Amino acid sequence: GAVVSQHPSWVICKSGTSVKIECRSLDFQATTMFWYRQFPKQSLMLMATSNEGSKATYEQGVEKDKFLINHASLTLSTLTVTSAHPEDSSFYICSASGQGRTYNEQFFGPGTRLTVL
Amino acid sequence: KQEVTQIPAALSVPEGENLVLNCSFTDSAIYNLQWFRQDPGKGLTSLLLIQSSQREQTSGRLNASLDKSSGRSTLYIAASQPGDSATYLCAFTSARNTPLVFGKGTRLSVIA
């Protein structure tokens, strides 16, 4: 299968700071990347869909000014949590699909655990 | 609204048993369906993908089936092992390059 990496794998920050999470497709060109959030003992909830070179599409209830998504290249998408607060503490996971990938299969990164103090 | 339901929510079995995890979905117009495994605090590992035109896929001890008419998919695990202990998630997409809709998962424990 394809490899998707995320960096950092975990981060602890103070309330009010901004945190950037990177999602990279290592061996294929990801025309579409998705960002999900997972709270403890819950399933994954879609935050936004990101297509290379265009603005992200956010799900209802997700603040676009708080969760900034940039998909500037076919191998990299970033999620920036601006002015993070404790309620933003969660597990953030990206997935990627795109050129050459069989049947639109999505491949997931290992996730980033964000803890806001 | 598309929904995915997974039953049971949790399952504990002795090592060596064959088991079936169930997934049902409300939207029969699916593009493909995927089964994933998630270990605690980790990301997702894709296990099997079934296209809408297919009825089943197999990989090793795993077999996944898809019945669009009834809105159901099952994941069959043969000869379960303690290493199979994890949360298993079912998810589907309704079109190409659209996001996955996830169920809440089945938490499996295989006891040695």
Report on this model:
- The complex is a heterodimer of chains A (117) and B (112).
- By secondary structure, chain A is mainly β.
- Chain A is built from no helices and eleven strands.
- Helices cover 0% and strands 50% of the residues of chain A.
- In chain A, the strands form two sheets. In chain A, strands 2, 4, 5, 6, 9, 10 and 11 form a seven-stranded mixed beta sheet that branches.
- Chain B is built from no helices and eleven strands.
- Chain B has strands spanning 4-7, 10-14, 19-25, 32-38, 44-51, 56-59, 62-67, 72-77, 86-93, 101-102, 106-111.
- In chain B, strands 2, 4, 5, 9, 10 and 11 form a six-stranded mixed beta sheet that branches. A five-stranded antiparallel beta sheet of chain B has the order 1-3-8-7-6, with no helix packed on it.
- The termini of chain B are far apart.
- At the A-B interface, strand 5, strand 9 and strand 10 of A face strand 4, strand 5 and strand 9 of B.
In short:
The complex is a heterodimer of chains A (117) and B (112). Chain A has 117 residues and is mostly beta strands. Helix content of chain A is 0%, strand content 50%.
